[in-house]
Amino acid sequence: MKVEISKTFDVNAPSKDVWDFMTDVKKVSTCIPGAEYLEDLGDNRHSVLLVVKVGPIKSKYRGEVYLKNIDEEKQIIEIEGKGTDIKGKGGANMELNGAIVAKEDNLTEVVGDSTVTIQGMLAQFGSRMVEDVSNQLFLQFTKSLSSKLEGTEENKDVNDSEDNTLSGMAVASAALRGVSGRLMDKIKGKDE
Amino acid sequence: MSKCKTSPEVGGMGHSVKRKEDARFIRGQGTYVDDVVRPGMVYMDIVRSPYAHAKIKSINTEKALAHPGVAAVITGETLKEYNLHMMPTLMSDTQMVLPIDKVCYQSQEVAAVIGTDRYSVADGIELVEVEYEPLPVVVDPFKATDSDAPIIRDDKEGQESNHIWHWEEGDKAATEEIFNNSDVVVKERIYIPRIHVASIETCGCVSEFDKATGQLTVWMTTQAPHAIRTVLALVAGHVGLQEDKIRVISPDIGGGFGGKVPVYPGYVIAIAASVVTGLPVKWIEDRRENLQADSFARDYHMDCEIAADKDGTLNGLRIKTLADNGYADAAANPSKYPAGMFSICTGSYDFKNAFVEVDGVYTNKPPGGVAYRCSFRVTEAVHAIERMVDMVADEIMMDAAELRMKNFIPKDAFPYHSPTGWEYDSGDYHAALQLAMDNIGYDELLKEQKEKRERGEFMGIGICSFTEVVGAGPSKDFDILGIKMFDSSEIRIHPTGKAIARFGTKSQGQGHETTYAQIIAEELGIPFTDVSVEEGDTDTAPYGLGTYASRSTPTAGAAAAMACRKIKAKAKKIAAHLLETSEEDLEWEVGKFSVKGVPDKAVTIQDIAFAAYTNHPQGLEAGLEATHYYDPPNLTFPFGSYIAVVDIDSGTGEVKVRRFMAVDDCGNIINPMIVEGQIHGGLTQGLAPALYEEISYDDEGNITGGSFMEYLVPTAVETPHWETDKTITPSPHHPIGAKGVGESPTVGAPPAIVNAVVDALSHLGVKHIDIPITPEKVWRAIHKNEVA
Question: Is A88 close to B704, i.e. CB distance below 8 A?
């Protein structure tokens, strides 16, 4: 299955700081729940580990992140990621186009468009949840990123589970909130 | 058959006697494969592929083997040592048992774990680490033959594309000529998606090999135990398994519907594991494995065209079909034609000519398919013709019933030779449709629909007048590995007049223990309660090809009648001896021979049975038994007319089947209650694909309909009240005039429901909707003009 995710968010930090942070895979991976940076493979390729727990399914993906294009002048970045479950339960590929836009001195907009292709168990059973899971992942990521760049790292998100894996319970409850929120919107007659 | 020949106590044909097998089933005392427990038995579970197409880079079994409950992990490399990693399919194709270097569909078997208990092997499969390298995937069969499509079967020499076969039937030029000279041509692409039989019991086996005697016993969920034994002997002869040392036992079966005809890799792995270890090995699929990896049914993309005249005369039919076979052509198709009996698609109508062609392709999906409660590809054929006839009616603005009546093959035209080569045995299509229309009040429904339409309500009436082709089958059209498709009955009358009858078929819930006994009761006058019926054990039952394609009554039922007649001929000799008269002076009346004109001077079949062991005439062998192998001279052609009435909620798109009238004609009826039960079940299994069921795939080949969360099997809540009736047109060539009924309702129900839905929406310009007709599809059809 393919999931397309487009996100824009603001960070209260100078654009250069954001750019430096976002092009450093090691730093970025500290913001992704369940992610662990393994090694620099050279040539803009990095090896990472990602643990995702969705309900009873705990998947450990070993992946490679490739910074395909880093254009500092235009402030755009193209990233390719691919990962496979280390037990052979499936895999995922990601293509991400990111852009950094300086809005004010201390305000930067981050724009990200990504397409994620999922194969295996997660695609079969998680298809109804993946969008909500992605949103939740993203939310945790931006919070963590903001706190690191804005220097408020102590304010850990309450949803962060202790072992820093993407917590199944947190994701599931957030996903359920997402679903029930949409339902409520429909009942209230709101357009999606 | 207006009147029963036998008393209710004897319970011959036409009596709705209660099913003998239900005494154990309703008490939960049936014996299914998973009930079989053998001393020292070990368990097996299967590692399955998450990818639809991928190279296998490595399989690491170390961690699994370290688990205390895991005894062994079997991979393709293990089986290759015995040359058992590949197996032949019924369609002369090959199929992996376990892969060596790549997987070709999601959920494909990758490795098997053997262990001491069910829990350990479930844990064990989690510990097997497989490294894959994903390959490009072929999901859309229309893109399978593109020049840039990856070749799925690169293991097959000379296979340079994903095209498997082309097959055609009928006169192409003559049909073309008809199309050029007709007033109207109606065209539509009709898709029947992949569905699954989803029987209550999943597949599995217990395989036990005795190293001392070389005897292999396999308890197996199979509809065709004898055929399986022969196949096993043919493919595993080289490892020392010969047919006399193989015993296949098919115990009670919890629903087959065609899904238990194929040989799945799991069976072969379990058998191999038991032969290697000398231990009994149990393998039982879970529900997901069953839905995702076992053979599918249908998956036909049909480009249909009908040529007709403005007055409603149907002239010609043309269908070009793309068959999505998945990774291998492993169809459970015993006919000699790759598309089975699809050329029956001219249906109940007297077309001047027809031309049918089918192309089979490989895709990265599980192999199959099975004839889900139908003779192979009949459901697809009936769906195509019954949809298209309605489209013609819509095009020329003629009533759908009137159009059918005008074009039905007339009653006096039987035996009828269809333009695609079939000889229909008997039929009275006008009578069946008329009865259905009278029963449901067709004219009043039309009036009601008109009024509702004026009020903006959506109500539809749909007809399906199907002709079925069952009872596989005559050897000119059928064989399995060259074995002709006869079936058998062996009947032995004990001295006390009770009997045991054994058959080459295998009931999966159809009620054979009752209906076969009733045929014997009818023929010999022995009460049906005095006849024990046995099937499914290759050591005891006579050779037969099994139960599917509604073939049990047409073949084994006929064999029972013929065996009874052999017994009766001998009984007559004994009766003449007992009554001290000549055979010519005797007459038969249910259960006894009497001297003509002296009805008091008679001997019952029970008297004769006793005499057969105690006082048989000199020169005549003792005993009273006979065996008959019945090779049918032709297929049988049951038919029927179904009318569905649906109401549609325009707000939600939900379709509600308000009424459903099913008039069936299956020839002479053995047990009306069982026939009605078959029809109720079959109609529900026809409702299912019409509105709910589909095994679907996304672009990467992930199964998106692979659990009961997505694969919606109708429950009592969704199932409407079925109204049934019958006409009786006996088969002229069958010994008891019966035709078989198991599959008619599954075949006939979907087009009736689709026709009703399309009829409800026809004034909006809706011409066709593919099944399953989900609320979303209906909602979109209703609102497509409103939404910008």
Answer: no
